[in-house]
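notes to self, project folder thing:

trying the whole complex as one job this time. last attempt i did each chain seperately and stitching them together was a nightmare. three parts in total, labels are on each line so i dont mix them up again. if this works i'll redo the older ones the same way
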Amino acid sequence: MEFNEITEAQDRLVQKSRALAGLSLGELADTLQLNVPSSLKREKGWVGMLIETALGATAGSKPQQDFPELGIELKTIPLSFDNLPLETTYVCYAPLMGNHSITWETSNIRNKLQRVLWLPIQGEREIPVNERLIGTAFLWQPSAEQEQRMKVDWEELMDMICLGRVEQITASIGEVIQLRPKAANGKALTSAIGEDGAVIKTRPRGFYLRKSFTAEILCV
DNA sequence: CATTGATCATAC
DNA sequence: GTATGATCAATG
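result (full assembly):
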């Protein structure tokens, strides 16, 4: 079997996720006996958790794929009326310390993005959460060209982190992957390498996929 | 109005 | 604090 062919088990998950197409979040929540928040303001991850529950992803906060046995990462993506991504896509935390031996090939971000099951969902804020419709899920594996673009960005960002320049990284760096704060609030601090090589305290950062990149993925 | 930086809930 | 799930909202 070719490395990028889909196994029967993987296909079962895809079919199961595709069966959700056309349902509203409210309808799906009803079948799972879950309450729908009137706003996502205080439950930003609610949609993702709903879909995880519906598809039987093993709940937890492990730094791994949602379906490790299938090698599949699940991502919901909010779409505008024009079917364009409304938000960037968070992937994982960025290691700010002890990362000198990590390569793109051994990185957590690459592991997660190797195979992603995307679930497009209406995300316009004017649509009540319970009325938002689920779209057609699809499995994505980055092309060699797409993976190369991600690798270039990742290496640039990791180089800056390793060289003690994390404070100089802004979200404008990176063509397809960007680095942004990722924390409960501004008080959260973690260790990183400072300009002079000493350990400093800074806000935790995470890797995100730019909207332009996920838009490209959606149109394939 | 798109983007960057900040934030919310939860588990451990 | 780390890590999961992300979207909010101030800013340029």
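what i see at first glance: Chain A has a mean pLDDT of 96.
need to look closer tmrw
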